Amino acid sequence: MSVSRATAAGWSQPGAVLMVETVRKTGLDEAISAALALWREPLAVHDPGKILLDVALAVALGGDCLADVGMLRAEPAVFGPVASDPTVSRLIDTLAASGKQALAAIRTARAQVRQYVWTRAGEAAPDADGQVLVDLDGVLVLAHSEKQGASATWKKTFGFQCAMRRSCAVRRGESKEVQDLLASLSQQAGGS
Fold first, then answer.
1. H helix and E strand count, the chain
2. Which of 7, 35, 66, 154 has the highest CB neighbour number within 10 Å of its CB?
3. What predicted TM-score, i.e. pTM, was given to this entire model?
4. How many Å apart are CA 56 and CA 79, to the nearest integer?
């Protein structure tokens, strides 16, 4: 018995088609593309909105760096054309350099799509009863360690828990994680 690499890759991403279709059906792809049109170079082959959504999809599928969009590139029939690693990196640099302007554009597009979807959902919308529950969970990031005196985590592996790196600051609301969470919650409450 043997398993080909192509078969194994298809099985490693069972929810990918559902995510791609959800983005398409909700109009998130068009909204993000329109929001990032300002950052599209005149002769660019790849749309900045599609690039950003590809990065988000790669993260949702378990990626942890920009180069992980390569897993999407390996499946062009499913994900379409995917930008090269240097193109992805250049876009992220460009968006980061523009600061709050790009972030505001992305947040506005997300808010518009969320409002559209929740309006269509009616009584089934997540905020139909006036509140949205957010369930946060820390993710253990595995890391190899040959350091002297290194000890295993509670799961008997080596790594760190990114969501709770600075527990004291988290309790006081000063950490970047808490600030990001509060910004996200303000979007959920109707902000942009």
1. 10, 2
2. 35
3. 0.67
4. 13
